[in-house]
Structures are given as C-alpha cells and as structure tokens.
Structure prediction request, 1151 residues.
Amino acid sequence: MLVPLSWLREFVPYQGTAQELGDRLTMLGLELEGITNPFAGLEPIVVGHVQQCGKHPEADKLSVCRVDVGNEVLDIVCGAPNVRQGLKVAVVKVGTTLPNGLTIKKATLRGAPSCGMICSEDELGLSDEHDGIMELPQHLTPGQPLLEALGLDTEVLDISITPNRGDCLSILGIARETALAFSLPLTLPEAKLVETDQPAADAVSIHIEAPELCPMYAARVLENAPSAKSPDWLRYRLHAAGVRAISNHVDVTNYIMLELGQPLHAFDLETVRGAAIHVRGADQDEKFTTLDNKTHTLNPADITIRDAERIVALGGVMGGLNSEITDKSSRVLLECARFNPSNIRRTARRLAQHSEASYRFERGVDQLNADYVLNRAASLMAELSGGTVRKGIVKAEPKPWQAPAITLRRQRAVDLLGVDMPTAFCESTLTTLGCRLQAGPAAQTANVACPEIWQVTPPSYRHDLACEADLIEELVRVYGVDNIPPVLPGIIKPLEDTGKPEPAHAFRTRIKHWACGLGLNEAVNYSFVSHKELDFLGQPAEGRISIMNPLSDEQNVLRTHLAAGLLQNLRTNIAQGANGVRLFEVATSFVAAPQTETTAQESTRLAVLLYGNRFDGAWPQTQAEHDYQDIKGIVEHLARHLHLPALSWKQETVAPWLAPGVGIYAGETCIGYAGRVKPALADAFHAKKPVWLAELFLDVLYTMHLTQRIRFAPMPTFPAVRRDITFMCPHGLEVGAVLACIQSQKLPLLADVKLIDLFEPKGGEERNLTFRLTFRHSEKTLQDAEVDKMRDMAVSRVCKELGVRV
Amino acid sequence: MNLIDQLNALVPAFEESLAKAHTLPQVEELQTAYLGRKGQLAGLMSRLPELTPQERPLFGKSANAVKERLQASMNARLATLNAAQEEAELARFDATLPGRAPWQGTLHPTTLVMEEICSVLTGLGFDVISGPEVETDFHCFEALNLPKDHPARDMQDTLYVTDSIVMRTHTSPMQVRAMLERKKPPLAVIAPGKVYRRDSDITHTPMFHQIEGLLVDKNVSLTHLRGILTAFVRQLFGKDMQVRFRPSFFPFTEPSIEVDISCILCGGKGHVGSTPCRVCKTTGWLEVLGCGMVDPAVFRAVGFDEECTGFAFGLGVERITMLKYGITDLRIFFENDLRFLSQFA
Prediction:
C-alpha cells in the first residue's frame, strides 16, 4: 500500500517525519517496506515564464523563447506546438539530468542558441503525455522549484498490509492507525454535494437477486458530466500512489478507492438497458467480455451485475466493455457495493483477473460507509466534470451490516498476555479503536453490570475483529507487544510421555553423525526431480507422484529414491574438478499410495555415493579408487553400529540404474540395495570412473534397531587356535558359498571363519581363496591334533561339495 | 702368568676394544670373541682341569666375576650405542610430515543449525516429532484457520499434488497432528522438517527447512513465548542478543507476532563504521521468525477446549543458518558443491 504523506496529512495532522511514522506503524503491525519519492529527480526543475515566443527563422516547427526562470532569463528553443507567450512552464536548466536519463546541454538548434529545455509530462516521467509542454497555473512564480510549486507528494510510504487488515488498504485506514499511534484527531474530508431535484431513483432501479453474493448495492447518478482529462493535482496524486490516470470519472473512482478503501465502478448510464441493475450469479457457461477486452466463461459463483438484458460488469472484479465510460460518456451510474469476499476471490483467481478492487473486496469493505463514499465521489465527479448529481442514493440492502457482539473478559486477556491489562486501559483502547462497549456479561446470562466483562461491538470496517482473542490482540497491539517481558515457563509433562523409544528424528540425526564420522559429506537435495531424469534412470512410471503446478519441468515429480539427486551432485563436483566424491543424504522418498490419507507413502532413506579416488592422492595415502568393498564395508559398518545381525548380499535386479545390483538383507528382511551405476548412465553425469551407490531403508533399520539389545558375553578363558587354508576355486564360485559350506557343518569348536587373502593368478581359470578358521574350547586348551582333525573335516567337505582343490 | 692372571687380563683388553667399537656389529663381534662359546673366556675356563682341586674354587669365582664384569661393560657399551642410535633416529624424525587422516566427513549446515536449535529446545523441555511432507489440505490449511478462498492463502504459494493434497508449505500441520494425536493438553513439541513453496529467486528456494514449536497447557501466556524465544536466540547467537516483538498476522495465531533479533553484522547499530549495514539495511533488526498464541479456531479444529492457552512458533532454518555462518546466497545450500559442504566440518 503506497501512502503519500501529504495525502495522509489531509486526514490527520501528523507533523513528524515519514521514517518516524513508518517505524511507529511497523510496531503496530503495519510494516514499513520503504519510503520512496515518486518524483525523484525532479528537484532541479523550476517554473519558468515565457516572456517572448517567436517562430524560429530556419524551422517551421520550432519556436525561439525567452524564458524567465527567476534569477535569469534563458534563450530556449522549443518544438512543442502549444508553447506561447505568457505561459508558465517547467524548465530544465543546462547540466541537469532528467529521470529518463537525458542530460540537458547548451546547444544551438539551426543557428539559434538554446540554454535549457521546456518539458512535457512525458519527459518528466509524470505521464505518457508528449503532445505538448506542460502548461502550469498562472499564479506560480518563476524560479520556484516545480515540486514545491505543484505541491507534489514527494514522500510516499510503502506499507505492507497483512491479509486480515483490509481496513488499512486506504489512506483513511492508515490515518486511523496514525491517529491511534500519535493520539491525533482524525478528520474526514467533507463531501460538498449539491443535488438536483430529479430523483436518482427515476433514472435507475436496483434489484439484488442473490443477497448471499451481495448484501448491499448502492448507486448515484450524474447527468451532463462529460468525460475529460483529470486536473493535474489528481493525476499527479494517482501517479504518486502508483495508479495510472485515465479520465476524470475513472480517476475519481480510483482516487476514492485509494482514499477510502471502497472500490467504485462508473457505468455509462446510456448503455445500461432498461434503467435497471440486477445482481446475481452468472448462468453456467455464460460468456462475458470485460473492459480489457478479454472474454470469460462464467459460472453461478461469479457475481454478475446486469441491466435488463445482459451482464454489464463482473461484480467486484471488473467492468464490462459494453458499459464502460468512454470519451463520449456524460451520464454516469456510480456503483458502490459490498460483495461476498469468497466469491470475489474465487472468480478473480479462476479468471486470473486480480485487480485493486477485487483485492479489497476479498479482504472486506465497510458497508456502513457506502453513503459517505458515494457522496464524496459524486461531488468530486460533479466538480471535475461540471455535471450535476441526481437527488438521493438508490440502494438495495437485503442484508444490512450486522456487527458481531463479542464478549471480552479482562481476566482472559491477562491470562493470555501474562501482563496486567487495567480496566481503564481496556476500555479506552477499544473505544479509541472505534468499538462500542457495554459492561457486563451477555444479557441472557446476567443483568448485573460487571466491570471485568464487556460486550464489544467492533466498528464496521474491522472485519478481523470476530472473537475475544482478536480483541485481546488489539489490546496488546496498543499496549505494545514489544513491552511484553520474557518469562521462561516450566514445562510440565505427563508421566505417560516417559520411557518411549528413541524418536525417529533422533535416530536419523544419529545416522547422520555416524556417516559424518565415517568421512562422508552430507548433501541435501530438493525432494523433486524431473520425470525426464527418472525416465533416463529407468524408473518405472507407475508409483510416481507428480506436482500439479511445478515451477519448472526440472521439478515436476517427487523423488522415488535418492540416487538422482546424488548423481546431479556428482556432476556438479566433477565439473569443479573433484577426483573423489563421498556423499550421503538422509531424506524422504515418495511413492504413490492412493488409499492412504495423504495419497503418498513416505519412507526415509540413507543413500551413499562413492566415486573416484578413495583418498585425495596426497602422501602418505595410497592412490586407489573406490570399489565394491568400500560401499559394502560402509553398509556393514552401519549394521554393526546398529547391532543388527550379520547381513547377506545377493546379486539381483535391485534398481534399473545399477549393474551389478546387490540386495542387502538382514535375515529375511531387505534393508536396501547397493551397486555400481551403469557406465552408460554414469557417463551422462560426466563420471568416467566407477560410481558406487547404496540406498538403505532407514525406517526398516529404525524398527529393527529398536528391538536390538546389547548383551554382554564373558571373554573366553582359553586360547584360540587358528588354521589357515587356501582353496583353489573356479571363477563364479562365490566366497559366500565357501563360507556357507564351512559354517553349515556346525563344527562345535569352530568359533570363526573369515577370508584373509584373495589371489587371482593372471590368466588363470581359478582364484586362490585363503580362509582363517579359528577354533576354541570354552573349558580347555585345544591340542594340535584335535584341531587338525576338525580342519581336515571342514576342508574335505568343502572340496567334495564345491569341487575345489586345496 | 697363571690362569687367574690371564682371566683378569681379559677385562682391560675387552674394555679397551669395546671403547673402540662404535657400531652394534662391532660390539657383537667382541661379544663373540670374548664371551662366545669359543671365545677367550670359554677358552680359559676349559683349562680348569689344569688346576689343582684347591685352586679350582678360586678360579671359578674369579671366572664368574670376570664374566659379570665383561657382561656389564658390554651392556653399558650397548646402552650407550643404543642411546646414540635412538638419538640419531629422533634427530631424523620429521614431525611436520602430513598425517594419514581418514576422509573428513561433514554435516550440511542446515543439519548443524537444525540440530543446535533442536538441542536448545529439547533442553527447555520440548519433544521432537516428525511427520509427512505430502499433506492434506485439512492439516496444512483448513485446521489452521486457513479456509479455502481466504486471502491469507496468498501468503504462501502452494505446490499441489492434487486439489486436496499439497506439499506442506510450513511445518504447522505438525501442530494439528500432534494435538489430534494427544487429544488434550499438556503438549510441548517441536517439529523440524522440510517445507515447500512455489517460489524461486535469490532469497527463496522451492524447498527449505522449518522448525515448528508448540506449547499448550494451562496458563501459557505471551510472556512465556517471549521467554522461550529469548532463551533460544541467546543460546544460538550469544547473551547480548536483543529480541524485538512486532505485531503481525498469521491465521493460526492470535495475537500474532513477528520476531526480530539485533543485526548479527552491525550489532543493531544499523551501520558498520560509517557504511550502512547491508545485512539489516540500517534498521538494526533482522526478522527471524513468526509466532503467536494459538488461535481458538485451531483448538476447535482439533477438538481441544477453546479455553486452552498455548503458543506456537515457526522459524526458517536456512535464514538462521545464513545469519550464523555469513552465507549470502541461499541457492548454494542445495547445489552440494564439496567446496561449500567441506567448510562445515
């Protein structure tokens, strides 16, 4: 909301600075966004008096002028057709730069010297008017700065108005708050209305057929009021408030809307057929062309203003092309109404026809102020056009304004705010805000006047005051929210809240710390990716959740897995010259689940991406690239960290972008998958080296982890005996198969078996796998002979079952 | 020279040779020559039968003494040489060689700040809860006093999944979920998480993080809200941090407050030296969060007694993170460039 300070001062005698006012309003909840000068750059422009004006001897269209600018008389060559002797004009002197960037220099035009320029409005950025120079009022003094001479609004406050304060979308509204802030009187401009004897009701009748859409519709009628250009003061003021001037009648409707907050609409009464106005919802699929020449298809929720035959305006949103004010209009029907805010909002949104008017109707206007608004607007229109105003206001008001009666308990205010709110303060504050107060509880409960309880009737412009809490907010707003002292509360918790398992959020945080400790860098990616990316990775289309109104095609679907984001990050980092990348992310993945409350199944995942060098390559770390053992080792480390049982790893199809892909299982439960990104896909992310990915289902791990308990096992008393054995195994025989074969024998004294060496002779058909078998007896020291016997048993079984050699 | 004299003569000879031995192998050579199985001492000892039975005890005693003496001398020499070698090794040691450090892991700055905030608030008695990011219109708007066709819906540009399912625009639906689940006060929860808006420019990203706070109990007042927030801000930014309350509007709180803190860069002065502060634009204040007393309409929507008292607040994590670390561009948060990430070790 742009508020020219000088306009505001017509309502309230505020003498302080704009900054001071803005700061104070900010602390009342009307936040100052900035202070601007719409006429910035015009400071050096002065009033000039054209003393002489003659034709340029060499050019037909140029005039040579002698212009008095107060302290000197300048020779200026002017090309405007309307320049003439005796005119008061706006002059730019040599050396000045205009708002449009033009710097005025001393020049010679076809032999005639020119020391300055006489300006048009266009050149000063005041309007688009460039047909001629500005003609200033005769009473101005040469040399006077133009800004001062015209009394322009050079200080404009930009105030951000929250959606609840529709009443502040006007100079009047801001003036009310200013009066409140500085204890100043509020004065409304007088509407000097002169009416003719002809009743307005003879010219038009109003019929509201849908009171729920329109509780009140009022109008005045002007006759012999020709459309014309508005006077300068009006045009410049609208300019200061950010509105383009059009013609007197339209400008007055805008001016009054900005001033009093009530949108108005002016119809050319000649075009209103049958001298009648009807208000109702549109017919289904009814067509209507608004004055911006757009044709819309309407529905019954759209409020239409109609004459006897057709729609003439889309109520509260925009007028019609068929009834708008034109250059030829001279009979004006001036509308002032209140419409249902929800309908206005829906229509404006659906048709993308947001306007200053719809913005205000959505937030609610003051129904009780309609007569004053009409009187002020009509008098101004009559004054500017020389027209006359018919007698009376034609009005239909099927639903008169009914203010809510709100019970306010002083004690409730004290409880909610935590500070004392004395009775006198409550009463004076609410009264100043325009509320009517009646002491005592609601009539039906008691008759006795009670000073601690009031029945409060808020003013008709404060639609945001609807319940007790709203009134308490007003009290503290005036008290000053910043005067509320800080008090640390003791938070009381029910005993039932204790003894609960670790919250999921804490678990996820712990996982992040584990990953960080392991040397992974945490990434955070957007939850949306593009269908294109998912297609590229081979993700099936079913189960995806699309965004209806994405910002771009890059973000039009929710991620079903975390790989896509991490691969993008890999690309970013490779582009920055990274040789090794170790990223992790803990985030939600989304899969469609139409039967659920939110239609989405959200699961938390941990994803790890390893790429390129295992270390940064500097001494003393050895040069090596990440491989399967790295990604697997990280997952195994996590499993131990969470006390999970041993994991099993199965090469299988896990994700279309991984080959090999490996399913990871804890017992029968799949906890995630790992694998290498297919080189052809990785290539698209500029990854020339292997990219290893693991994606784990954190919700599953969380549930499993909750049931795991650490149990202490006594340390063994007797020493272990180890035997190493090397099998020559054909390629394709998995290490896991050998381990399983040994373990399946359930040798009673075998405490552990693990692979300790792997050697692949070049070009061979086999690889040598060395296992270490650890034997231990809990009650005695083992003899070599018995250990050897067991080893031999294990070995011969492996050789026999798997067909390998020792 | 009798045998005993010969024995005793070994000592000065050995010691003289030892003194000339400067390396461990030289010492070992001497050890073999004197103390070895075929060494001089053993040679003399083997001549024991030459002595009379009366002479033998004295010879034996002398031989032991000489052996001990030789041993001791040798050990002393060895110790000296070892010490010298250790010293030489220490002199060669280079403490400035780089270490074999594991890769440096890092947490994302929003994680760091979110955790710090959560830890301050859990310390004050709040429990952490989490919930869905895809939300129903009811939880995200309706129950929070944001009916359809209400202008306040303009305050947040929403990403829709369907007409009635949205990407949550704030963490406030967690208030609704927490109260629906709990059914009655008291309740003290915070809900950190991702939120989504249809907005993207230098100061907005379509996804960011918020932390919601909610306290509902008997006799909770605005002073308590200010107390909690003051404690929180001081913990995060230091004891001298000032907190300013400003009236504002949120549909789900009444009264609604916007909270400013003194500017991190200029300390609230509005200027750094003589230049206008670029962080607070000379106001001396930075807007950090919105809050207020829970609107009775919200209590009504979740079936709580309207006479309950409670406050709620919601703060943007990225905003606080930018202030805390002096980050000026919001978008780099989600690019995951290691040159950015690695700074938060």
